[in-house]
Amino acid sequence: MHRQIAGKLTGPVTKWIVLVGAIVLVGIMAPLNGKLIDVQNNEASSWLPQSAESTKVVEQLTGTVDPNDIPTLLVYHRDSGLTTADLAAMDEDAKEIEQIKGVTAQGAFSPNEAKALIASGAKVPPLLSDDDKVAFVAFTFNFGKNGWQDIPDAADKVRELSKIDGVDVHLAGFGGQASDASEAFEGIDTNLIFITLLVVIVILLFTYRSPVLWVLPIISAGFSYMISGGVVYLLAKYADLTVNGQSQSILGILVIGAGTDYALLLIARYREELRRHEDRHEAMAFALHRAAPAILASAATVVIGMLCLVFADLNSTAGLGPVLAVGVGVTFLIMVT
CA-CA distances (angstroms) from residue 78 to 75, 138, 252? Predict the structure, then answer.
């Protein structure tokens, strides 16, 4: 970084202007960062190659089949065979399931209903095994684009109302899979960030041996994460960037890790310059002037490497590159200012 630019950024007055500007930017971007989950695309097609046959099938069916439909099965099993009372209880379960928000207007079909339809000549599956040990209630969830967030609550309601003494009941089909996956990944980005922060704080305490100095890199990393998340949200909403739960989780970890690394380089140089200059602003100006090129080279290398992922065949990986590149770029700007 040019000596005069570094001097202006670290001046007695301009340093506060830069800080206020960063706080204002965080205030604008933080709400957008909180909405990042709203623009996530966790559908199967977002994880598959664009050239995959399954992806092409989804695209062809989009005009005739709602891509947000989630076919779901409620599986009942009794070792000794399901009784007439069990089948009647399934009829009642089907009626209650139809009242759950998110279940489509087609309703829920029980084995008795399927049997009646078959008797009338309709070609539908019987929903009851030949040995009467296993039966299904079939229905479809549709929460629009919010399926990933909304299906766990609806699945819990289905599990709660479908209890029959002596009968094993399991939620299956795409609905059961989506519910289990959503619950497994619920809060994973927050947990990963907190764990990463804890590890980084411990490292900084050992490195700086100061109860206060570690706070500055952590705050700067927090600023970087909020701003980069807001930028990614805008790109996902208006530039068709693919963002999923995986990329959002990795973004937070990368920003904290890269930001801490850049802070270590800059603060180490600043400590050296304090031995040569009595004025702390002058020391920081020289530190920034000498450390910024190395930090820029490091950040640019990572950004270019991440952007290479754009050429990946997997949609999820191709979208991951720009997301992480934005995170590293924003982190560099925050750490050197």
Answer: 10, 18, 47
Specify the 3-state DSSP secondary structure of 135. Answer: strand
CA atoms lying within 13 Å on the CB side of residue 48: 13
Last residue of a domain, one of 184, 209, 240: 184
Tokens of 139: 């229905």
Give the integer Cα–Cα distance in Å for 294 and 266: 10
User: What is this structure's pTM?
Assistant: 0.71
Instruction: Establish if 169 belongs to a structural domain.
Output: yes
Q: Are 262 and 64 in contact (CB under 8 A)?
A: no
Q: Edge-to-edge, what's the strand order for the sheet holding 134-142? A: 134-142, 69-77, 168-172
Task: Indicate which CATH number applies to the domain containing 24.
Answer: 1.20.1640.10
Q: How far apart are CA 107 and CA 44, in angstroms?
A: 24
Q: Which residue has the tokens 């379960």?
A: 93
Q: What is the CATH number of the domain that holds 125?
A: 3.30.70.260
Buried residues in 277-303 as b, exposed as e (16+ CB within 10 A): eeeeebbbbbbbbbbbeebeebbeebb
Q: What is the pLDDT of residues 156-183, one digit of tens each?
A: 999 999 989 999 999 999 888 888 877 7
- The number of angstroms, rounded, from the C-alpha of 37 to the middle of its chain's C-alpha atoms is 6
Neighbours of 248 (CB within 10 A): 23
Rg (CA), the chain: 28
Dihedral (CA of 82, 86, 90, 96) sign: negative
Find the helix or strand (DSSP H, E) in which 72 lies: strand 69-77
What is the number of structural domains in the chain?
2
Is residue 201 domain-shared with residue 212, that is, in the same domain? yes
Lowest mean pLDDT among 41-45, 168-172, 236-240, 262-266: 41-45
Alpha helices in 140-187 (DSSP H): 147-161, 173-185
Element (H, E) at 142: strand 134-142
